[in-house]
Write a structure and sequence with these properties.
Chain A: This is Acetyl-CoA acetyltransferase. Chain A: GO terms for molecular function: acetyl-CoA C-acyltransferase activity. Chain A: Keywords: Transferase. Chain A: It comes from Novosphingobium sediminicola. The structure holds 2 protein chains of 2 kinds. Chain A is an alpha/beta fold. Chain A folds into 2 domains: 134 residues, 3-Layer(aba) Sandwich (Peroxisomal Thiolase, Chain A, domain 1), CATH 3.40.47.10; 226 residues, Thiolase/Chalcone synthase (Peroxisomal Thiolase, Chain A, domain 1, 3-Layer(aba) Sandwich), CATH 3.40.47.10. In chain A, α3 crosses α13 and α6 packs across α10. The longest helix of chain A has 16 residues. Chain A is globular, with a radius of gyration of 19 Å. Chain A starts with 6 loop residues before the first strand and ends with a strand. In chain B, the strands form 2 sheets. Chain B has a 5-stranded mixed beta barrel. In chain B, strands 1, 2, 3 and 4 form a 4-stranded antiparallel sheet that branches. The chains are: A alpha/beta, B mainly beta. β9 of chain A pairs antiparallel with β7 of chain B.
């Protein structure tokens, strides 16, 4: 592949996650764009195109009103939890194809308090399924980890350790929502939300915005920027016999193949490296169990290894494979449209060596990100210096 | 597919008109058998009956708990149409041998006593027990031992 079509990230910007009363989701996205442009040292007028994602906070392309009516191309993306990954995939394709040299992937959201309330018709499901109270994402994650714990010997304490690590990492991430450590006993003994998860083991829908400035390697060199390379960006839907969010039934023997496995395999093939060559990873952790299962589904360990890995601190900052270095969704919350791009933002911070209190030691050179969501979608990216 | 419409009068209750547009959950001629669908080409069984390209099939009434969780908070309305007063309920995936794994309520068992692998049998539970003409959801309860099994 020629240098002209290699894609780089040359600027990153974020609006802090959490709750920002009085600031719309769109304005949080625009804030992130301005920050990313400043980081890259380019102007809004230099941006040739954008892919923008939001699930619940309006049409992203309307932000041209805030940023300037340059007539640039702006395409909206709405793809559930893979919204950010899909925006990034599309943006890198626009550059890889040679159509453009410099553009944006931006995502933002602003969800009401409480659990997501999806409606059956949005997922091609019958009305009774929602009336019965089954359109609740937490049920799926709880039932999935309950079986996984049974099959692979994962303890409830390990779920608590994952949440404890998330809050400990979030302390050092200025963009995180929850920035205080929580003791393991507090996590384990808190009220149960959906067994085996207590309230500290679930992330909350929230708010936030993230923007990435992408450019061809040639353009980055012209601008004199030391870029971070985007080695792979993939998005996949569910395979047969998978177990997904909002599943009234599963095939016998199902639950092993997942959209995540497909997206991960495609990303490693594209990047030409294996899981053992990844220095740090951001893995979808909508709850503490997801991080554990996604470690295996993305190829970083075998099923069941997590119990020992986590006991030994191998996924902590300074471990062999630090996971969710900014506290992930557990500490940052989940604004759907921004969440996947937040992972990539954090990876760029780490690869630049600017993580301060949460910096992965030893000058990491490769970083991985992964999202998963309803109704069985996953997106993966691999970055390298 | 009709969307559940919430009105002031019907807050938290089911609009039967919207639900009746769904395919039935139970076999019309065998009320305590669930109606699944068998794919005409592949033979794959699914639930609920999805219509096009599937033949209706009565699902086995006994199975084992594949996984489960407890719903500890009242889901948001809409779309939830259960009673306003919320009591936690158990939700399971039940493996029906040779057919499919289905999502259903678990009843008649202490929430602390549920285990993966436990034998269960089909029953039904009213979404809102106080409703005059309640909507019946598929549910499973701990299996009763049959006379033949007891003799063995």
């Amino acid at each position: 592949m020629s240098a002209a079509t290699n894609v780089c990230i040359i600027g990153i910007g974020i609006h802090p996650f959490g709750r920002t009363d009085g600031v719309s989701g769109l304005d949080q996205g625009a804030h992130a764009v301005r920050a990313a442009l400043a980081d890259a040292g380019v102007a809004w007028g230099d941006v040739q195109f954008a892919y923008g994602g939001s699930d619940a906070a309006g049409n992203p392309d309307t932000m041209v009103d805030r940023l300037g009516l340059t007539g640039m191309q702006f395409i909206n993306v709405r793809n559930g939890c893979a919204t950010g990954g899909s925006a990034l995939f599309s943006a890198q394709m626009a550059i890889r194809s040679g159509e453009f040299e410099l553009g944006l992937a931006v995502g933002f959201d602003k969800h009401p308090r409480g659990a997501f309330n999806a409606l059956p018709a949005e997922y091609n499901l019958p009305e009774w399924y929602g009336a019965a109270g089954y359109m609740v994402t937490t049920q799926f994650f709880a039932a999935k980890i309950m079986r996984y714990m049974h099959l692979h010997g994962i303890s409830r304490r390990t779920l608590g350790l994952v949440a404890q690590k998330a809050f400990a990492n979030g302390v050092h991430a200025p963009h995180a929502w929850r920035r205080e450590e929580v003791a393991l006993d507090t996590i384990l003994n808190a009220p149960m939300v959906s067994d085996p998860f207590t309230k500290y083991m679930f992330c909350s829908p929230g708010e936030g915005g993230v923007a990435l400035v992408l450019a061809s390697e040639k353009k980055a060199r012209e601008l004199g920027i030391r870029p971070i390379h985007l080695a792979a960006a993939t998005m996949r839907t569910r395979p047969p016999a998978s177990f997904e969010v909002f599943a009234p039934s599963i095939e016998i023997g199902g639950g092993v193949n997942t959209a995540t496995r497909l997206a991960a395999a495609a990303a490693f093939e594209k990047a030409g490296i294996g899981p053992d060559e990844i220095d740090l990873a951001q893995l979808q952790d909508t709850e503490a169990g997801a991080e554990i299962m996604h470690m295996a589904e993305n190829g970083f360990c075998a099923d069941g290894d997590q119990e020992q890995w986590i006991a030994e601190g191998r996924t902590a900052i300074g471990g062999a494979l630090p996971v969710n270095t900014d506290g992930g969704c557990l500490a940052c919350g989940e604004p759907i449209g921004a969440s996947g791009l937040r992972q990539v933002y954090e990876n760029v911070v780490q690869l630049r060596g600017l993580g301060a209190g949460r910096q992965v030691p030893g000058a990491p050179r490769t970083a991985y990100s992964h999202v998963y969501g309803a109704p069985g979608v996953s997106a993966v990216t691999i970055l390298h210096t | 597919m009709g969307r559940f419409i919430q009105t002031e009068e019907s807050t938290g209750t089911i609009r039967r008109a919207a639900l009746s547009a769904d395919a039935p959950l139970f076999m019309p001629d065998a009320p305590l058998h669930l109606m699944g669908g068998r794919h005409r080409q592949t033979g794959r069984v699914t639930f609920p009956y999805p219509g096009d390209q599937f033949d209706p099939v009565a699902l086995p009434t006994r199975g084992t708990v594949w996984s489960y969780t407890i719903q500890r908070f009242r889901p948001k309305t809409p779309p939830y149409a259960g009673p306003e007063t919320f009591e936690p309920w158990a939700l399971a995936y039940v493996e029906l041998p040779g057919a499919v794994i289905i999502e259903a309520r678990l009843v008649g068992v202490d929430l602390d006593a549920i285990r993966i692998g436990m034998a269960v049998e089909l029953t039904r539970v009213a979404l809102d027990p106080a409703a005059q003409d309640p909507f019946w959801l598929p549910a499973f309860r701990p299996a009763t031992v049959t006379e033949r099994e007891a003799a063995q």
